[in-house]
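Feature request disguised as a bug report, sorry. It would help if multi-protein outputs had a clear separator. Right now it looks like this:
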Amino acid sequence: MHPVRRTPLIDLLLSLFDSAELLAFLARRPGGPQLLQRLPAASVSLLELVTAAVDLLARHGHVQPPLFAALAETFPLRRPDIDRVAAIFAAPEPVTVEPDHRLVDYADPASLFEGDDP
């Protein structure tokens, strides 16, 4: 998951839950019992727990509108914050390009060496 998406979701969940509440919320979600088995032990910090939960939710395809609807139902006064994060996930996935990549014209062999001045 791209950090542009991951960080706001982590921040949102940190602001909504303590560890016990997050575990209870996840247990009620589809696939929740399986997710709970993959989360770290209860002795980890809330940040570590939330980060692991977000990664698991994303890996298993659960960061979808039903998740945000359940959050909004559970925390109706936080609906604007939840909707803001949901909108980030509704947008196309950001693309990351490594800064050292350059376009090469393979029809022009000299372009392979551009920018490699000694």
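(second protein starts here, but nothing in the output says so)
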Amino acid sequence: MHYLLATAVRTTFLGLVTLFLSADSAPIGDTPSRGILERAPASGKQPYDYTQPGYSDQASTAEQSTGTWLTAPYTYKGAGGGADHPQYTTGEGWDIWEIMASRINSKGKPVTTLVDKLGVDAQRNTIVVMDSWNDADPTSSQHKLKLRQVLTAVWKDKARKQLSELVFIRRENIHESNVRKSIDNAYKKMNAKKGTILEVKESGTAPGEQEAYHDLVTKNPFGAGAQRLLQENPEMQGRKILTFTLDTRMGSYSLKIQLGSSQQMAAAPAAGSYGYATGSGSYGGGYTQGGHGYHRV
């Protein structure tokens, strides 16, 4: 079995066990995701908003996020439960980090819930969302971080680089119907065949490409969130989304966003670069094609 597929199965199983057995938790519904645009459920409701007396977002003293860009009640869970070393590093160079949301339950005991699994490849200036359980986040709406805010913190803390050095944001094995529909529409607008890699460029001139690009920026939850990330951070001034790389091979959906300036567009790498294999098999960037280990936004 491929190393990453085995790892995906192992980590997802453990993550699901944690989510279903955590105190005061409930099974996760398959609600539409808003990607990195927002963390709240699409319905606008906050089913995990513990605001009644006896609940608190405040993590225990040992779990405070002091000295990092990641603010309480969110903490890193690395190797051995610590925050200084990643859970593991894949054979392709991804450092894997888990993001935990902490709270004090009605009995006064600290409870942590896994809400994100992210990969960082500082050498390739890439961050990847391998899994994100939006609706499992127990944090109240007052303190809840949007996924794009978590990505920003993880990049600064774990890649140890400026946000302006981030080039690629990736989302793997997308299963949410609204995100898939947005990707499907891009293929239709450009009259492209599903089951292939499709590049949609900001400067593209192919039939339907400009319309497809606009919809991915404004209607795709992940694309809209990336656009907000650029707008909200002064150090990203002058940067834009240059390219969306969509991949629907083997029935799986993934998305890669390339950030940069217009001047960088001429030197942009081909779709097969930066970890995307153009043939069958596994992606060098961090998951096995057709695997279902990482499956929630």
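Even a blank line would do. Unrelated, but nice: The longest helix spans residues 3-21.
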